């Protein structure tokens, strides 16, 4: 098949063509020797969380389920958007997904399955960490698709939104989450028109009224000069200014923001928001927010998030517990405390535990999503998943 770009198609992924060859060989051998009906339970657990994250936002389940749909297996999982940890209170690895069925039937899907979950979870987690740091009132926009393969834009933007961002810049990402894309204006517009005031006014004239008037104010002059110029040019039609200060000019970015806020306020432009982009990350975002930034365009830091390192392992064969060294065998139940989100993993037939932290009744968090190949529940909307993430974020304190 001729193709323009280095991407796998839906059909190729669904046929297992993005898998590692050793699974294909395993499948062949199992068939040749008559092991193709051997029933197993396999679990996906966190091997490690990057950068000492205490938790991650489990994301990518919708794609994972569509990958597995049609196979003669049952699939249980924690819901998409669940804040998960690597291990429970007692140090036992937490099964996030459990697959039950003939290993022969699903072995080749391990590679794409992990890929869907590991990357999306990493992106959503970085987004959620930033949301947790800045609190609920700051505007967070995902600007990061330009540094990633364009075929991934829908996944990246969806994951950032689920993690608690307010909007995404790509057309296709916005379509994926059912929203309008959000953005401002590039320096190129101002440079081509060779006059910032002319460019701002042109933006105001040409763009439909629902597009917020956020004027880029660092193209030719100092940020505070251009910010005041933009506010005076657009009067009460302006929504905000965007500072995208290059690193060579940054000095103390927080101080620049403070100064812009002051100069706007003193001239009666208190309503003009300050949006900041360029090099924003979880280490500097709090300082910039405290200095007066009302919103952030955050790019590569989120789209290029480290992946959550997940692994799939067999834990039972024909109903008997068996696992490799380093993994806990047998069918399990995953319990979570609704108050503090602490986890306890028990064997499947154990009594429901009380939360070891607060004594509350714990909830069985695994949900059956696929029964003999059929998706048996309606998957939640991205807005519902995002709300679930935000609600849990208010219950975690560590970062
Ligand atoms: Zn508890």
Report what the structure shows.
The protein is α/β, with parallel strands linked by helices and about 400 residues long. It has 2 domains: about 10-120 and about 305-395, nicotinate phosphoribosyltransferase (Alpha-Beta Barrel); about 135-305, Aldolase class I (TIM Barrel, Alpha-Beta Barrel), CATH 3.20.20. The chain contains 15 helices and 18 strands. A 7-stranded antiparallel beta sheet has the order 13-12-1-5-3-17-18. A hairpin with a 2-residue loop joins strand 17 and strand 18. Helix 3 (about 60-70) runs antiparallel to helix 5 (about 110-135) and helix 9 (about 195-205) packs across helix 10. The longest helix is centred in the N-terminal third of the chain and has 25 residues, at about 110-135. It is elongated and about 75 Å long. The two termini are about 45 Å apart. The model has no long low-confidence stretch (mean pLDDT about 95). The site of zinc ion has 8 residues, from loops.
Tell me briefly what this model is:
With 399 residues, the protein is an alpha/beta fold. It has helices at 10-14, 21-32, 61-68, 103-106, 110-134, 153-162, 171-177, 187-193, 196-206, 223-234, 247-250, 253-266, 285-291, 300-303, 382-393; strands at 39-48, 56-57, 74-77, 83-84, 97-102, 139-142, 167-168, 214-216, 240-243, 273-277, 295-298, 309-317, 320-321, 332-336, 343-347, 363-364, 367-371, 374-375.
């Amino acid at each position: 098949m001729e193709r323009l770009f280095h991407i796998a198609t839906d059909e190729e992924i669904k046929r297992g063509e993005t898998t590692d060859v050793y699974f294909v060989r395993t499948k062949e051998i199992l068939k040749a020797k008559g092991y193709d009906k051997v029933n197993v339970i396999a679990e996906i657990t966190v091997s490690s969380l990057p950068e000492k994250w205490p938790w991650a936002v489990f994301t990518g389940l919708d794609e994972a389920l569509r990958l597995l749909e049609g196979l003669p297996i049952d699939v249980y999982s924690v819901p998409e958007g669940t804040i998960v940890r690597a291990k429970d209170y007692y140090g036992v690895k937490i099964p996030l997904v459990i697959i039950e069925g003939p290993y022969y039937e699903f072995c080749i899907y391990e590679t794409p399955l992990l890929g869907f979950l590991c990357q999306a979870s990493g992106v959503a987690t970085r987004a959620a960490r930033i949301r947790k740091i800045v609190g609920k009132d700051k505007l967070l926009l995902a600007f990061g698709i330009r540094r990633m393969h364009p075929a991934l834009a829908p996944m990246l933007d969806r994951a950032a939104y689920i993690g608690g961002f307010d909007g995404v810049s790509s057309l296709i990402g916005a379509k994926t989450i059912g929203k309008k894309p959000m953005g401002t204006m590039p320096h190129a517009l101002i440079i081509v028109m060779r006059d910032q005031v002319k460019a701002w006014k042109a933006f105001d004239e040409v763009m439909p009224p629902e597009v917020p008037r956020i004027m880029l104010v660092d193209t030719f002059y100092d940020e505070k000069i251009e910010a005041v110029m933009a506010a005076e040019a657009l009067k009460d039609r302006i929504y905000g200014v965007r500072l995208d200060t290059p690193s060579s000019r940054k000095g103390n970015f927080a101080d620049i923001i403070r100064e812009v806020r002051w100069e706007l306020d003193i001239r009666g432009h208190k309503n003009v928001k300050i949006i900041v982009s360029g090099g924003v990350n979880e280490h500097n975002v709090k300082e910039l927010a405290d200095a007066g930034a009302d919103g952030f365009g955050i790019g590569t830091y989120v789209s290029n998030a480290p992946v959550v390192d997940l692994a799939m392992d067999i834990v039972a064969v024909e109903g008997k517990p068996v696992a490799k060294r380093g993994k806990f065998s047998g069918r399990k139940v995953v319990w979570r405390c609704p108050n503090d989100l602490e986890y306890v993993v028990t064997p499947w037939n154990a009594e429901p535990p009380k939360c070891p932290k607060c004594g509350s009744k714990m909830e069985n968090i695994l949900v059956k999503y696929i029964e003999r190949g059929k998706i048996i529940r309606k998957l939640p909307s991205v807005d519902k998943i995002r709300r679930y993430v935000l609600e849990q974020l208010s219950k975690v304190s560590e970062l």
